[in-house]
Amino acid sequence: MSQQNRSTTNLLRGTLAIGAVGVVAAFLKASPERFWANWLLWFVLLFTVGVGALFLVALEHLVNAKWSVPIRRIPERIATLLIPVVPIGLLAIGALPVLFPGTRPEALHNKILAGKAFWLSLPFVSVRTVLVMALLILGLAVLVGGSLKQDQTKDPAFNIRARKFAPAFMAIFALAITLVAFDWISGLTPEWYSDIFGVYLFAGAFLGGLAATSLAVLHLKDQDRLEGVRKDHLYNLGGFLFAFTVFWSYIGFAQYMLMWYANLPDEVVYFQTRLTGGWHVVTVLLAFLHFVMPFFALVTRDAKGDGSRLRRVAVLMLAAHILDIYWLIFPILPGGPHFSWPEASFALLFLSGALLWVRGAQQKGEDMPVGDPFLKEGLEFRL
Amino acid sequence: MIDKYVSPSELKRLISALLVVAGFIAIMALFGFLVVPGTRNVNVPEEAAAVEAPQGETGWLDPTDYPATAQVVLPPIDPRTVMTPNPELMTRGKAIFAQTCATCHGPDGKGNGPGGAGLNPKPRNFTQQAGWTNGYRIENIYKTLDEGVKGTGMVSYNYLSKKDRMALVHVVQSLGAFDHGPEDPKALEALAKLFASAGETIPNKVPVAFAEKRIEAEFHPAPALPDVSKNPALRESVLDPARAAQTLAGIPRWREDDKAFAAAVAAGVPGNGFAPAVVTYAPAQWKELQSALTGR
Amino acid sequence: MSSGKSFAVLGLFDSPDALMGAIPKVRGKQLGTLEAYTPYPIHGIDDALGLRRSPLGGMVLVMGILGAITAFGFEYWISAIDYPIVTGGKAPSSWEAFVPIMFEVTVLFATFTAGLGMLLLLNKLPFFGHPVLSSDAMKAITRDRYALAIESEGEGFDAEAAKAALLAAGATQIEVLPEPDRGPFLSADYILRVAGGIFAACVVAGLAMFGAVKLFPVLAPMSHMEDQPRLNAQKADPFFKDGFGMRMPVAGTVARGYLPLGVASQDEAASLVNPLPRSPEVLAMGKKIFHNRCELCHGALGNGVPTLTAAYGAKPANLQAQQFRDYPDGKIFWVITMGKNAMPSHAADLTETQRWAVVDYVRALQRAQNATDQDVKEAGAR
Lengths: 383, 296, 382
Prior knowledge:
The complex is a heterotrimer. Chain A has 17 helices and no strands. By secondary structure, chain A is mainly α. The longest helix of chain A is centred in the N-terminal third of the chain and has 32 residues. By secondary structure, chain B is an all-alpha fold. By secondary structure, chain C is of the alpha+beta class. Chain C has two domains: 183 residues, no CATH class; 112 residues, Cytochrome c-like domain (Cytochrome Bc1 Complex, Chain D, domain 2, Orthogonal Bundle). The chains are: A mainly alpha, B mainly alpha, C alpha+beta. Chains in contact: A-C, B-C. Chains B and C meet through helix 1, helix 4, helix 8, helix 10 and helix 11 of B and helix 7, helix 9, helix 12 and helix 13 of C. Chain B: Keywords: Heme, Iron, Membrane, Metal-binding, Transmembrane, Transmembrane helix. Chain B: It comes from Geothrix rubra.
């Protein structure tokens, strides 16, 4: 490990410590609603980035893609974020009685909530979350663990196994992302519902995973650890990123427009809170950062294969994804959007924690899946 | 056979030229059959307009465009010719009855005409003795025709000439088979005096287009309101300043009497230029609006 | 028709690698424009041939943005300017409702630009006279051979040198191609074929449709839309207790932009004020409406001389009568709005402005039939 790397690690440890102190202070001083909203934000964020990266891996196995074999190890490493997400998610159960009206006893007096009382109850939500986490860890073990093992064994049977497992994983993935969307975000306002909400979170999650992957690929490429990964591979990553900004905005706008048109009181309250009282600024900013800017930054052919531009767009995309989750969760707190020391310390703790984890994961296995028989074909990939 | 005279390529060219010509002819035919006949009918010959064919209700092609005529005063009628029925009078009366009265009172005066079905109270049944509002003697029926019966569908028919009204009186009496009572010589004498005193006046008439010009010229636009955009009270209450000004000009004493002002303005929103919201105003708001409009 | 001059020299190669290897060798000699013909796209060949970047992407972007602007302009003009209408309680200029159309038109413009721009504008198709199409090598090119052509750029084309260069680069077969046939595109032959093709398609489609309808007379596409449980206006419907299909609005409903008349009787209506100026426009409007709606019963001069009246069981008022001349404007307006006796209400058909305009025209009619002496003098009585 070089001197610079070590100093970066030390810096991250420092910010981690500061963040941890801030988070403890927030637990003691700030209101429990605010504390748990922050906790939920980082739980959902790390979950979506990890699961988005894992989805990219599974997608490759599912369609037997060759171009992405040389860079597959990167999303595999990012997907290991799901391991720290398990304790974070289990702790988030503490947020249930605080933030989620469906778990409180007075929900039984509400006609709508009484009908879904069991579904929204604390035990069932916890069981579901644990189940989903377990299934995802299983998927991680099969896809990522098997791939790491293949580095030594060079056994092509893994490719066949992974390809057979990938469809099953897709079902798990769909279940997991939908349940997280409905339980942990939609559940904050249980009288409001949107059928497409799971798809909306999926679009954001895939973009988050993709942006993190692109960023890590470019980072390793700068260190010459990904020899043979070329513009063509970057172009595909950029193309994905470009396409899914449109997908995200399509889903987001479709959800908005239908509710705007129907103007039903129980539906429109969701956008009512997000278009008034200071939140409208965040909404416009989100549309701008999550769609307009990345769309026009990546629209030309050169931009998609251009490493420096792709890096900037990936950073932007991750920031926009954080803003997206913030926009989903924080409007339940009264008094408009707020950002202050509790939010900052949470960001410090979880961002540096996630970076440290990913940096640690970078040491796992080879930088490329050297045991994969398709690696050569992937390296030869030309547009 | 044919390729002795033309080569295949020439034949193709000929046929394609033929197709183009046929298509052209088809389009022209479409025009000829469908479009041209329509255009022909638009052109009305010029001389047709010049003919002053007497038709329509005023005897002129455009019933509202007749020559102006000064008023004519007809000489008074001789009362003796109308006080008692005579055949000429009855014929005329029956024609007017069929035209004017029968739709409500029915052809036989039984009060069962189709036009009366929806009226409340129902039209008078002339064949029965009971219930006549003004009575059934000559002077009573004449009074009804002259003034109408207030609160019912029976309006005044004083636009009919006196002679026509008397003809109707006799027709109405003839429809009821009961005794119409002893005559009141005093009342009859008064009627006869009335008939002898003045003749009918046929009023001045001018073409409608000319009348339009006259009433346009006589119209004085109302004085403009204070600038609406500057005063927030007015901006909320006034939709159309021009109309509002016109409305106010038509409300007597609106500056002085705030109750009358409020009632008259609220009755006509929003067509009168005021916003619908004014109907919910409290008296204090009305006063505020009133003072804002007077420019005080 | 070919003039006998050679236009291009075609060299065939056995593998894509041989072709890719030959390109730099031939390209260096600068004998003419290089063009490759292969059965499938080969990675990197556009860079090797030195082809310039296609402008299609830029065209598509510009046209896509243009499509979005066009759609927005159309929608905005229709919904907010030309015929503003409140739908679902939304403002006529709501941009949210325009977005789906904008999206579709953007896609339409972009795809049409991409497809037609590529084929017609950039590739200059259709061009059936291209010599490669009628070359002997054509069959091989479309199957398993890879061709490199050196095409003439003008007068100084040296076919022999091109031949030699291609052979030196490893071509297995050489073919010299004649000048392309740049005959007129719309030849008689072409017109005949197209017209015949369209005619044949019509005949086939017509016969097929005829047969389908004959054989499957009850074949109803999208029967769900035909059978949907809908209510026709003014039809009975057993669903509701009173048996009426049409429903009354909820009690107290007030239509947007309308208020019920604030007076309860005709006498009270005397206080209503005509808010319109007596301008030529207002009188023209009143005249038109009177002509269309009132004249049939009240007569062209409003004197109740009937056109339909007796036969239809109504005795319309003589608007020239003294009592109606003495009416204030508001009372006439009230009658038009509420109806009177056998006269129906016209409130549903005429706006408040139109009703006031009719009142003004009735005033003009009354003035025409009961003019002042001054009027007659000025009009020039006979």
